[in-house]
Amino acid sequence: MTAHAAEPTPTVPPMPERNPKALRAAIARHTPQLLPDFDEHWKRAIADTYDIGPLPAFMARWWGEYAIARDPKLDAHMADLHQRAAESTGIAEAKALLEESSRIRHRARKVEPDE
User: Fold this and answer.
1) pLDDT tens sequence across 91-100
2) What's the pLDDT band for 1 if we cut at 50, 70, 90?
3) Which residue from 105, 74, 80 is spatially nearest to 10, judged by alpha carbons?
4) Are 12 and 108 spatial neighbours (Cβ–Cβ below 8 Å)?
5) For the chain, what are the domain ranges?
6) What angle do CA 89, 91, 96 make, to 5 degrees?
7) Distance of CA 2 to CAs 6, 8, 56, 71, 110, Å?
8) 100 near 81, Cβ under 8 Å?
C-alpha cells in the first residue's frame, strides 16, 4: 500500500505595498472576483473626478476587502457570519454575529504589507 501525498495547504498571499497600483495587482492575481467592483469604484470615486481626496477611504475599504478575500477560510467565515445573521430570528444573536464581522473587518484594515 502506498501513502498518498497530503494535498498542500493553500497559503494566504501576503499583503502588497500599501498603494492603489500594488493593491490592484494583488487583487487581480489572487482575488480576481473583486476586480470588477474595485475598478468600478476607482473609476467612480477617483478617476472620473480627478480628485484624490477620497483615496484614503478608498484604500481603507479595499485593503480590508482584499485582506479578508485573500484568505479562503476567513472569507468563508465572514460569509457564514452574514448568512447566519440574515437568517437569525433573534435580534441579540444577529447583532452579535454582525459585531463579530465588524471586528474582523477592523482588524483586516490594520494588516500591514507583507503580513
Assistant:
1) 999 999 999 9
2) very low
3) 74
4) no
5) 33-109
6) 110
7) 12, 18, 55, 32, 46
8) yes
Scanning the structure block, which residue is given the C-alpha cell 501513502? 3
C-alpha cell of residue 12: 494566504
Amino acid at 80: D
Grid cell listed for 82? 452574514
Cα–Cα dist 112/108, whole Å: 9
pLDDT on residue 2: 47
Distance CA(36)–CA(39), nearest Å, equals 5
C-alpha dihedral (60, 110, 106, 45), degrees to nearest 10: 0
Tens-digit pLDDT profile for residues 61-90: 999 999 999 999 999 999 999 999 999 999
Cα 23 to the chain's mean position, in Å? 11
pLDDT single digits (tens) 11-40:
899 999 999 999 999 999 999 999 999 999
